[in-house]
Amino acid sequence: MSDLYDQLGEAVAALGPTAGAPVAGIVVAGGLLNPIETIEAERFVPWRDVPHAPAAPPGSGLTLGVLAGRPVAAAHAIAIGAEDSVAAEAAFPLRLLHMIGVPVVIVCGRTGRLADHLEPGGVALVTDHLNLTGDNPLIGPNDDRLGPRFPNMTAAYSPRLNGLARSSAIAERIPLHEVILAEVNAPGSLPEGERARLRSLGADVVGAGVVHEVTAAVHLGMEVTALLAVTDPGHVSRSGSGVEEGRDVEGAGPLLARLVKKLIMEV
């Protein structure tokens, strides 16, 4: 069996030639497609056609194209079920982006509010996280060709990119809430007892589809930031299949897409 690095090489070869490395990558989770829909797509490769890609829903894959006049690559996050959560599978899109030369990643998705000052339909910038999944994409043998055994996670969310996100939000007149994210496994609405526990740990929002991706990006030496659409009441989903959650992000999705486009212009 080939090792991880060889498998990624085979995946890159299957993509075919690219016209230079994208300046940035966008990874979207939770069915929040607005940032991808604004890309002038030049090529779309379904995950099912990429060797060694984990199983993924139909219609998900990698988009290569142009956003704000700059070459980008956008990937659908790998939706992982609560029964078979494997963080290494969630890391696959990040590792593939790294292998095609992407230096900067913007992770986008949905998040359920915990803090009372947050409004559903708003946009949040993640400044730190709590990994409460019991899983990590770096578990297992390390390949030094991808990154160090123990990456420095003390500033996982790039101060430079977060600063650009703040200035971009001001330029676009988009209110931006800075949050600490708690990531959990089980999808669905959380009972108030669990929400209270997460608040006591310092979390402002709760979600899925961010922490494993960010951890993988840091391990790979990529700069990463995370921009999330705030939903209510604390819904958690990688697949975007929650009851009434779409209503909460009708306004946030277009705002998030505008902010991502402006940020791409600045990186």
Give a description of the structure.
This protein is α/β, with parallel strands linked by helices and 267 residues long. It has one domain: Nucleoside phosphorylase domain (Rossmann fold, 3-Layer(aba) Sandwich), CATH 3.40.50. Helices cover 30% and strands 26% of the residues. It is built from nine helices and eleven strands. The longest helix has 15 residues, at 252-266. The N and C termini lie far apart (38 Å).
Strand content: 25-35%
Examine the coordinates and then state which fold CATH places here, giving the name of the CATH topology: Rossmann fold
> CATH superfamily, called what?
Nucleoside phosphorylase domain
- For the report, how would you describe the main beta sheet? 5 strands, mixed, barrel
Taking all Cα atoms into account, the compactness measure Rg is: 17 Å
Strand order of the largest sheet: 5-9-7-6-10
Shape: globular
The H-and-E topology, N to C, reads as HEHEEEHHEEHEEHEHEEHH
Structurally, how many domains make up the residues? 1
Q: Helices and strands: which structural class?
A: alpha/beta
Q: Report the strand count.
A: 11
CATH class categorisation: Alpha Beta
Report the CATH architecture: 3-Layer(aba) Sandwich
Determine the number of helices (DSSP H or I, runs of at least 4 residues).
9
On the 0 to 100 scale, the average pLDDT is 89
Helix content: 25-40%
Query: Termini, distance in Å?
Result: 38 Å
Q: Low-confidence spans: pLDDT under 50, at least 5 residues?
A: 239-246
